[in-house]
Design brief:
C8orf32 fold, 12 helices, single chain, about 50% helix, 5 strands, alpha+beta
């Protein structure tokens, strides 16, 4: 009897050792791909949008308010600072450094969970140069070739400048209204009016939740809302830890960024200071200082978040 128990214990230890070894080898050689798969467009965007919507008073959760909150969130948490990078919107959110086209792309992705169609738009001048990129959005599922309709009906969102333009009736403005001077431009953006007078280049559209498979719709509408936010945050951080291609300083910076994206400003500040302390001569320290200073000011924290 004792011999059988010992043999069983040895077999169990061998099994655990084998499974652990396979896991370590998989992480070593496939960690990057595992990490990328975990940071899918849906998990990250739904996690962030759920967090954003929860900051809106229940009696004000209409589509227009959701668009304004999502735009404000992006404008406060991702800036045109640092390197020009081009990657998936879920990763650009974590990087924290993006320019007008990537910011519009992030917005296009984050409005998917609230079932709004979004378009990445390169505005054009008469000379064929694109001076700026924005997002258009509509409730309809339109072809990107429907430029004339979009110019007359789409809502214009400029995440880089943190604005959703409004017309003289205080409704969201269309590109045509912007061109015709029928909408309000902040003084520092007054030169942007001509950007909306030529047909733009519409690069692509998004995939609102209603356009997905029935299985995904069921999961994100019935199961996902019950997953604790702390679990989602841990899941995203785990994906970054598993990425074997990241430098130590880079990984620490991204982990601090995730804390900021989940509005835990105290943990974010602590993480940024740790990056600066341990890796002072890296570009990650420079970015960490930048964001630590940003979130130290109450006006730069989304929805009045506190440290």
């Amino acid at each position: 009897m004792m011999m059988k128990l010992k043999r069983k214990s040895v077999l169990m230890l061998l099994c655990f050792f084998l499974i652990g070894s396979i896991f370590i080898i998989a992480i070593k050689y496939r960690g990057y791909k595992i990490s990328q798969a975990m940071l899918s467009r849906y998990i990250v965007s739904h996690s962030i949008v759920r967090l954003i919507v929860n900051q809106i008073p229940v009696n004000k959760r209409d589509i227009n308010t959701k668009l304004e909150y999502i735009n404000d969130y992006i404008h406060l948490n991702v800036h045109s600072y640092g390197m020009v990078r081009d990657d998936r919107p879920s990763l650009m959110l974590i990087y924290g450094e993006a320019w007008c086209d990537s910011l519009a792309n992030i917005f296009r992705r984050l409005i998917e969970p609230v079932n709004i169609r979004g378009y990445l738009v390169f505005l054009m001048l008469k000379n064929g140069i694109s001076p700026h990129s924005v997002a258009y959005c509509t409730p309809e599922n339109l072809s990107i070739e429907d430029v004339e309709y979009l110019q007359k009906n789409a809502v214009v969102v400029d995440p880089q400048n943190g604005i959703i333009y409004r017309n003289k009736d205080n409704e969201f403005a269309t590109p045509t209204q912007l061109c015709n001077g029928e909408a309000y431009f902040p003084k520092h953006l007054s030169g942007h009016r001509e950007f909306y007078c030529e047909n733009p280049q519409i690069v692509g559209t998004n995939k609102p939740i209603s356009a997905r498979t029935q299985l995904k719709i069921y999961f994100y509408q019935n199961i996902f809302p019950h997953i604790p936010g702390s679990w989602l945050r841990l899941y995203i951080k785990l994906a970054l830890v598993l990425n074997t291609k990241l430098e130590k300083a880079e990984r620490m910076y991204y982990l601090a960024r995730v804390s900021q994206l989940f509005l835990d400003y105290s943990a974010a500040k602590k993480g940024y200071l740790e990056v600066v302390d341990r890796f002072p001569s890296t570009r990650w320290a420079k970015l960490a200082i930048y964001w630590k200073n940003q979130i130290s000011s109450p006006e730069n924290r989304f929805a009045g978040g506190k440290i």
